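User: tokens in, sequence out, please.
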């Protein structure tokens, strides 16, 4: 006589596997590394990386782009600050001179 065992798992899954959210996060992380790695990584290499190395690579690329964004924002703020000063320059027109005489050209 064969006895069937029922799973006592509270999650409802009867097998071990990755959830759809976890898989989505993995594939998103792989995409980010491949895309922002600027050709330094291909999909298969990143997919087969050890988890710790993939996380380290992702975090390193993320930190690089955060620093680059902060530097860019700082430069833009600085440029916008100087642009406001030079956007309406004060032009010195020189002294206000109104001659009291008129000049005529002579015909020879």
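Assistant: Sequence out:
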């Amino acid at each position: 006589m064969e006895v069937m065992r029922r799973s006592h798992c509270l999650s409802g899954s009867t097998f071990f596997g990755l959830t759809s959210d976890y898989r989505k996060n993995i594939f998103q992380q792989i995409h980010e590394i491949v895309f922002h790695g600027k050709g330094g990584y291909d999909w298969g290499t990143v997919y087969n990386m050890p988890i710790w190395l993939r996380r380290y690579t992702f975090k390193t690329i993320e930190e690089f782009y955060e620093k680059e964004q902060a530097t860019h924002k700082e430069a833009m703020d600085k440029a916008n600050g100087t642009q406001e000063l030079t956007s309406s320059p004060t032009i010195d027109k020189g002294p206000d001179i109104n001659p009291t005489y008129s000049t005529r050209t002579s015909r020879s």
